Amino acid sequence: MKYVKPLRLLADALKTKVSVPGRFLGLDVGDKYVGLAISDPCNMIASPLSVLLRKKTNIDLMATDFQNLVKAFSVSGLVVGYPFGKLNNVEDVVTVNLFIEELRKTEKLKDVKYTYWDERLSSKTVELMLKPLKLHPVQEKTMLDKFAAVVILQEYLDYANRHVNTEPAE
């Protein structure tokens, strides 16, 4: 896995010599779960995909799941939610950094690029939308993780699509 700056991720996908650029996978990384979202083939709209159970013992299995998703959806990059600016919340920063480092160590995603995107308020936004639905707590948690990944990816896509053709890539 190779880190690239946010605008570079979309710019690189657009430069590929294929008829349709690769899609992006959005990740909302938590202690127990990783929420996933996928972009449409034009990289304009994010949709919920799945939630993966995260344990210290299953990182190799998760890397294989990501490999399969990369193939199945022609994924060209990962957009990982990152807790930029969260005061006094070092635990969230460590959680995301550790997860990415563990994925990298598996070497199963060597050719996959990733970038970080600000996840502030993504979960809170989704919580407020789900509250009126009065879901079962387990169902609510699954929806929260999935849709937080959608918010992260959609915010990235909106920003990148506005700026990638108007500014030189970072």
How would you describe this protein?
The radius of gyration is 15 Å and the shape is globular. It contains 5 helices and 6 strands. It has 170 residues and is of the alpha/beta class. The longest helix has 27 residues, at 137-163. The chain has a 6-stranded mixed β-sheet with strand order 1-6-5-2-3-4.
Based on secondary structure, the structural category is alpha/beta
Instruction: Please report the distance between the alpha carbons of the first and last residues.
Output: 18 Å
Order of helices and strands: EHEEEHEHEHH
Helical content band? 40-55%
Backbone CA Rg: 15 Å
Oligomer: single chain
In which order are the strands of the major sheet placed? 1-6-5-2-3-4
> What's the main sheet like?
6 strands, mixed
Number of helices: 5
Strand segment tally: 6
| Sequence stretches where pLDDT stays below 50 over 5 or more residues | none
Shape: globular
Mean pLDDT: 85
Indicate the proportion of strand residues. 15-25%
Summarize the structure.
The protein has about 170 residues and is of the alpha/beta class. It has helices at about 5-15, 60-75, 90-105, 120-130, 135-165, and strands at about 1-5, 25-30, 35-40, 45-55, 75-80, 115-120. Strands 1-6-5-2-3-4 form a six-stranded mixed β-sheet.
